[in-house]
Amino acid sequence: MDLAYLWFFIVGVLFVGYFVLDGFDFGVGMSLPFLGKNDVSRRQIINTIGPVWDLNETWVIVAGACLFAAFPEWYATLFSGFYLALLLILLSLILRGVSFEYRHQRDSVRWKRNFDRMIVIGSAVPAFLWGVAFANIVQGVPIDASHEFTGSLLTLLNPYGLLGGLTTLLLFFTHGVYFVALKTDGQVHTDARKLAVRSGVLTVVVAAVFLGWTIMSAWTGGAPLVGLAIVCALLAAVLLIASVVANLRDREGWAFGFGAFTVVFAVLTLWLSLFPNVMPSSTDPTFNLTIENASSTDYTLTIMSWAALIFLPLVLLYQGWTYWVFRKRVTRGRIEKAAAEVH
After folding, report:
1. Which of 293, 338, 341 is nearest to 50 (CA)?
2. Other CB atoms closer than 10 Å to residue 121's CB: what's the count?
3. Which spans are transmembrane here (predicted)?
4. Which one in 129, 212, 214, 225 has a CA-CA gap of 20 to 30 Å to 163?
5. How far, CA to CA in Å, does 92 sit from each of 57, 87, 113, 326?
C-alpha cells in the first residue's frame, strides 16, 4: 500500500482514539449539572477522570502533529479555514484543564461553582464543534484552485454540520455518563444510569439521522468505500442500541464498552465516506484535496512510519497501565473521608 494511503488511515485511527478517550471526558464534564447534586457528588464525578483526562487529551496533539507532517496541504487548508472553530476548541480545552487544576484550591462555594461552570462549557463546546468540523470536512467546503478556504465560520454552521455537532455532543455525553456509572457508587451511580437511559434514546435517534444522511451523501457522491462505510454505520447503530440495553440491565461495563465502539465505528463511517479525498471542495470537484495531492514525500512518510512503529505501542502500553492502576471505583465514602481530613 502507498504510504500516503496508509497514513490517511493512521491519522484516522489517532482521531478515533482521541474521540473515544476524550469523548467520555467531555461527557463527564457535561454531566456535572445533572448528576452533581452537592459538592461531594461533584468531586466524585470529577475524580473519575482526574488521573486520565490530560493523558486522553494528548491524542489530539499527536493526531494534529501527524496531520501536519503527513498531509501538510490538508493541515494548512484545515487550520486556516477552520481557524475560529479550532481556536474556540483550543480555548475551551484550556479553560477545562485550568478548572480541573484550580477548582480545589480554595474552600469557597462560589469559587468551585464558577470552575464547575467552566468545566461544563469547556466540555460542551469542543464536543459540539468537533462534530461540526468533521461533518463539514466530509460534506465539503468552499475551496478554490489554490486550495484555500473561501468561506467563514458561518459557512460551517449549515444543517449537516449542526446535526454533526449535535450528534457528537449527545454521543459524548452518553458515553461520559456510562463512564460515571461505571466508576462511581451510591446516588451518583444510580442517577447516572437513569440519565443514560434518557440521553441514550435521544442519541440513537439523532445519530441514526446523521449517519443515514452521511451514507446517502457518500452513495450519491460515488465514494469508493461506501460499502464499508455502510457496514460501519450499521455496526455503530447496533452497538449504540446495545449500550442502552446493557445500561438498562445494570451492566455498566458492557454499556461503556459498547458506547466506546459506537464512537469507533461512527468516526470510521465518516473517514471511509471521505476516502480518497481528505477535504472535498464544494466549489469545484477538481479543487478537491486528495490523499495524493495533499501528502508529504515518501521519505517523510517512511521516517514517520518507523517512528510510529516504535513509539505507538509504547504509548498504548503506558496508557493501558494507567487505566489499570486507576481502575477502582471512586466511592462517595472516600470523598467524604478526604473532605473530613481537610477540615
Report:
1. 338
2. 17
3. 6-32, 77-98, 119-139, 159-181, 201-219, 225-246, 253-274, 303-326
4. 225
5. 12, 8, 17, 26
With b meaning 16 or more CB within 10 Å and e meaning fewer, what string describes 301-310? beebbeebee
Three-class secondary structure assignment of the chain: CCHHHHHHHHHHHHHHHHHHHHHHHHHHHHCHHHHCCCHHHHHHHHHHHCCCHHHHHHHHHHHHHHHHHHCHHHHHHHHHHCHHHHHHHHHHHHHHHHHHHHHHHCCCHHHHHHHHHHHHHHHHHHHHHHHHHHHHHHHCECECCCCCECCCHHHHCCHHHHHHHHHHHHHHHHHHHHHHHHHECHHHHHHHHHHHHHHHHHHHHHHHHHHHHHHHHHHHCCCCCHHHHHHHHHHHHHHHHHHHHHHHCCCHHHHHHHHHHHHHHHHHHHHHHHCCEEECECCCHHHCEEHHHHCCCHHHHHHHHHHHHHHHHHHHHHHHHHHHHCCCCECHHHHHHHHHHHC
Nearest Cα to Cα of residue 256 among 156, 307, 182, 320: 182
How many angstroms separate the CA atoms of 264 and 281, rounded? 26
**Residue-wise pLDDT tens for the chain (343 aa)?**
589 999 999 999 999 999 999 999 999 999 999 998 888 899 999 999 988 888 898 899 999 999 999 999 999 999 888 999 999 999 999 999 999 988 888 888 888 899 999 999 999 999 999 999 999 999 989 998 888 888 888 888 999 999 999 999 999 999 999 999 999 988 999 999 999 999 999 999 999 999 999 999 889 888 899 999 999 999 999 999 999 999 999 999 999 999 999 999 999 999 999 999 999 998 888 899 999 989 999 999 999 999 999 988 998 898 899 899 988 888 887 877 666 665 5
**Residues sharing a CB contact under 8 Å with residue 61, sequence separation 6 or more, in sequence order:** none
